[in-house]
Design a protein that fits this description.
It is built from four helices and no strands. Helix 1 packs antiparallel against helix 4.
Length: 69
Amino acid sequence: MLCKICKRPMPIGQTVHRSCLEQVTNELQEDFCTDKCRWPLTCDEETLAEHCASCRLLQMAALCKEAFA
């Protein structure tokens, strides 16, 4: 079986390497949070921290990282 991200061989029962998933997740977060999220441009640090704590993208990223920890 091959990793669905890097296409290198995988142990039986896994579909992606933890490091590959972490890299893709980090890239997605950086791209979205830096280039697409409007909150950093429109609010103060406290409000931004509250928003980030409830951000569904960041919650999903954390779940992905937990699943492969």
